[in-house]
Amino acid sequence: MDPLSVEGAWLHTPRVHADLRGSFFEAFRTAGLPHPMEAAQVNCSVSHRGVVRGVHFAAVPPGQAKYVMCVAGAVLDVVVDLRVGSPGFGRWDAVRMDDETPRAMLIAEGLGHAFMALSERATVVYLCSQPYNPGGEHGVHPFDPALGIAWPEGVEPVLSDKDAAAPTLGEARAAGLLPGYEECVKFYAAPH
Fold first, then answer.
1. CA distance linking residue 5 with residue 117, whole number of Å
2. Active centre residues (catalytic)
């Protein structure tokens, strides 16, 4: 796995075996991951062009690590460092993921995740280290100028009511919603 510019996020580009029948690749394996990840829940979202989901994150502990793949269509997948006190606080990285070049992003607990559907229809599957916990789930507005995420031009964004009402990075920080970097580092080091 290759590290991204956001500490705690990696990109996996599997080796694809192709022949006359089609192709095969190993999409996920826990052994050898740079960050421990046991899947407790698998989610699948189908989105129309322009749909933006996120920036979502979970309170740490327990947090929620994610392993994200686009299995049909194309998305711009985004990871954001939301850990207060992190040297990279507010930094983001984005990777185009699609069904032609298999890739997956591993995202540690405490980081934010979002994506925008670029194709007419896009299917994203993500493995989560913890099941959905409504009381511990939070968001930051994906179009907050303080984040400055470079969303693709020429694609009309579509947000859920919840994501459209999400606080800015500053508002989430002032409300105490964001995870602390030191708390996350301690969590990463503890046995799970």
1. 22
2. 56, 126
> Which CATH number do you get for residue 177?
2.60.120.10
Q: Which DSSP state fits 40?
A: S
pLDDT digits (tens, 9 = 90+) for 141-190: 999 999 999 999 999 999 999 999 999 999 999 999 999 999 999 999 99
- Coil, strand or helix at 136: helix
Residue 177 near residue 163, CB atoms below 8 Å: no
How many independent structural domains does the chain possess?
A: 1
pTM (two decimals): 0.94
What is the domain extent for residue 83?
2-189
The secondary structure element, H or E, covering residue 114 is: strand 111-117
pLDDT tens readout for residues 96-127: 999 999 999 999 999 999 999 999 999 999 99
The SS3 of residue 51 is strand
- Residue 190 Rama label (left phi>0; alpha psi -120 to 50; beta): beta
